[in-house]
From TrEMBL:
Interacts with the CDC2 protein kinase to form a serine/threonine kinase holoenzyme complex also known as maturation promoting factor (MPF). The cyclin subunit imparts substrate specificity to the complex. This is Cyclin-L1-1. It comes from the Eukaryota. Residues 328-419 have a biased composition (Basic and acidic residues). Residues 261-271 have a biased composition (Polar residues). It comes from Prunus avium (Cherry). Residues 40-143, 156-241 form the Cyclin-like domain. Residues 261-284, 313-450 are annotated as: Disordered. InterPro entries: Cyclin-like_dom, Cyclin-like_sf, Cyclin/Ssn8, Cyclin_N. Signal peptide: none annotated. The lineage of its organism: Eukaryota, Viridiplantae, Streptophyta, Embryophyta, Tracheophyta. Belongs to the cyclin family. Cyclin L subfamily. GO terms for biological process: cell division; regulation of transcription by RNA polymerase II.
Length: 450
């Protein structure tokens, strides 16, 4: 049983030899080829998705760890590789959408298997099935890892080790390339990243013939052992001696990531034509004719009789051939019918898919038209409200103007009445004064006469 903990996912050689794939009957060479093939898929897809190298390295380590617990016969390499890359993009904080990962892997498989590159419709059933399988594979990986996906790469140690050893700068790139190639092997589940970094540095130094200090040994300063460094170099040399990895169909769940091989193989495999065989009556007639020809008649009459018999038998054989159909022709007709039926079925499926796509497009157009109508109605309502507000404001302005004019008129009217009243009051005063003065005069006159 393999237990998973933070930075302790390391196996022994015995555990790797007794892996689940070996128990299912897969030999060591096939398992190595499938591991390299899955890592190649992750590396190539990461480049196409423009992801950093850390994402691809994390995905390859998760890929090796998963197949240390599960068998290649039960989980498809292509689906697991796609889900490992998708999960690694999330772990390294460079997430990609599932649609992008599916489209890239679909295109890669079409190119690798020389299939016609057809665009994958994100609204089709095929895409929904692929997305569901991608998420299922991701859940399987997380379950087997115990949701502990901590990965430590040897790349971060390489620059520090080379700076400490004071090596030339061209050695850094070579060691970096070797570290990337080491991720296609099982070194990441056998040794710690420090040991792998030391082995990569040693291999790069040997390739460029750069001497490293040996008294004291330089690897002891980095907590590594000479046996581990030699094993790393041996595994890398074996990797470079292998040919390019190709896909080996060992999974029971299906061999294709995009389900495109089934339809392609059914269309590309020709039906074998059977050679038409003669009827038994024709065979018997020909044998009788040969026997009659081989007979050596002694008289001319016997010759005429034999010729008549031969001609009669030939006529009978022709009539029987015309009346009875040949088995080979019937089989050819049956095969032609089966081909036509398959073509009609495939064309019917394609027409059904096209009708579904057309219905979906029509539904989308209807939804867009509805949204446009709603927006128009809203705009109209808003326009009406704005017109009403403008009418109200104008009416209020008119009212205020009318009030101002009325107040002015009232002020004018009130001013005229005051002047008139003042004028009248002055007249009245003058009149009363004059009247009063005349009365006083009369009184004085009377008193004076008295």
């Amino acid at each position: 049983m393999i237990y998973t903990a933070i930075d302790t996912f390391y196996l022994t050689d015995e555990q790797l030899q007794n892996s689940p794939s070996r128990k299912d009957g897969i030999d060591e060479a096939t398992e190595t080829t499938l591991r390299i093939y899955g890592c190649d898929l992750i590396q190539e897809s990461g480049i196409l998705l423009r992801l950093p190298q850390a994402v691809m390295a994390t995905g390859q380590v998760l890929f090796h760890r998963f197949y240390c617990k599960k068998s290649f016969a039960r989980f498809n390499v292509k689906k697991v590789a796609a889900s490992c890359l998708w999960l690694a993009s999330k772990l390294e904080e460079c997430p990609k959408k599932a649609r992008q990962v599916i489209i890239v892997f679909h295109r890669m498989e079409c190119r690798r298997e020389n299939l016609p590159i057809e665009p994958l419709d994100p609204y089709s059933k095929k895409y929904s099935d692929l997305k569901m399988e991608l998420s299922k594979a991701e859940r399987h990986i997380l379950k087997e890892m115990g949701f502990i996906c901590h990965v430590e790469h040897p790349h971060k140690f390489i620059s520090n080790y080379l700076a400490t050893l004071e090596t030339p700068p061209e050695l850094t790139q070579e060691a970096w390339n070797l570290a990337n190639d080491s991720l296609r092997t099982t070194l990441c589940v056998r040794f710690k990243s420090e040991v792998v970094a030391c082995g990569v540095v040693y291999a790069a130094a040997r390739r460029f013939q750069v001497p490293l200090p040996e008294n004291p040994p330089w690897w002891k300063a980095f907590d590594a052992e000479k046996s581990g460094i030699d094993e790393v170099c041996r595994v890398l040399a074996h990797l470079y001696s292998l040919p390019k990895a190709k896909y080996v169909p060992v999974c029971k769940d299906g061999d294709s990531f995009t389900f495109s091989n089934k339809s392609w193989n059914s269309q590309s495999q020709p039906n074998p034509k059977e050679v038409p065989t003669k009827s038994p009556s024709a065979i018997d007639n020909t044998s009788n004719i040969k026997a009659a020809a081989e007979v050596n008649p002694e008289s001319g009459g016997s010759k005429g009789v034999l010729a008549k018999l031969a001609t009669d038998k030939l006529k009978d054989s022709k009539e029987s051939d015309e009346s009875v159909p040949i088995e080979g022709e019937a089989r050819e007709d049956f095969s032609m019918k089966s081909k036509s039926e398959r073509r009609t079925e495939s064309s019917g499926d394609k027409s059904k898919d096209r009708e579904r796509d057309r219905e979906r497009e029509r539904d989308r157009d209807r939804d867009r038209d509805r949204d446009r109508d709603r927006m128009k109605v809203r705009d109209r309502d808003r326009g009406r409200d704005s017109d009403r507000e403008r009418d109200r404001e104008e009416s209020e302005r008119d009212r205020t103007k009318d009030r101002g004019y009325r107040s002015k008129d009232r002020a004018k009217d009130s001013g005229g009445h005051l002047e008139k009243s003042r004028h009248h009051s002055s007249r009245d005063r003058d009149y009363h004064n004059s009247a009063y003065s005349s009365r006083d005069k009369d009184r004085h006159r009377h008193h004076s006469y008295a």
